[in-house]
Design a protein that fits this description.
This protein is an all-beta fold. It contains no helices and eleven strands. The model has no long low-confidence stretch (mean pLDDT about 95).
């Protein structure tokens, strides 16, 4: 099993910045992708950003050029730097990691951290 603990959410004014952090523990071998998702009230959970084992990043169009995902090589943490925040970024943000074990993909999720962008 993999445990994920998120931190860094909170209330911020439009145009401000926040940094989310996700610490991993447990059986972190075979992790091939790490990422952040978010879910706003009444909406489906959506991918915000991801980073592969090879360091390839992928961003939702709505956050490109504002958000940056990063991780350490040991995959013990994955962070999301969020700049120029907008009201529409308000959501619960979830850390996600994926492991491949004998051809099967396993998804693990954090408990979520609230991000509220409001004046």
């Amino acid at each position: 099993q993999v445990q994920l603990v998120e931190s860094g959410g909170g209330l911020v004014q439009p145009g401000g910045s926040l940094r989310l952090s996700c610490a991993t523990s447990g059986s972190i071998g075979n992790i091939y992708a790490m990422g952040w998702y978010r879910q706003a009230p009444g909406k489906q959970r959506e991918l915000v950003a991801s980073i592969t084992d090879g360091g390839i990043t992928n961003y939702a169009d709505s956050v490109k050029d504002r958000f940056t995902i990063s991780r350490d090589r040991a995959k013990k943490w994955v962070d999301l730097q969020m700049n120029t925040l907008k009201a529409e970024d308000t959501a619960v943000y979830y850390c996600n990691v994926r492991r491949n074990i004998i051809g099967l993909t396993y998804n693990y999720w954090g408990q979520g951290t609230q991000v509220t962008v409001s004046s």
